[in-house]
Amino acid sequence: MTTRAEFERWASKNWIDGLPKMIALRAWEASRVATLEEAAKVCDERAEMYWKAYKKSPIDRPERANPNVEGMSDGAGNCAAHIRALAKSEGEK
Asked: pTM surpassing 0.90?
């Protein structure tokens, strides 16, 4: 399940209206936000790895000052930011 609507369809078939459904919904929302943060952290790790390769590799290494490697770092960082924005929007629902 990836969206709240999908979860609510599933929950409506498996729970009666009321408290149990709301508890499950809150648990699902919290777990989705936590999972998205895990994904963002993986992107952060990749961004850092590529940045270090770009800036700190030995001078004779092809990744040193390579704009493609810098771009991979930027892309991974942007991905993390977009995942966190999605998690924030999910948490506000």
From this structure: no
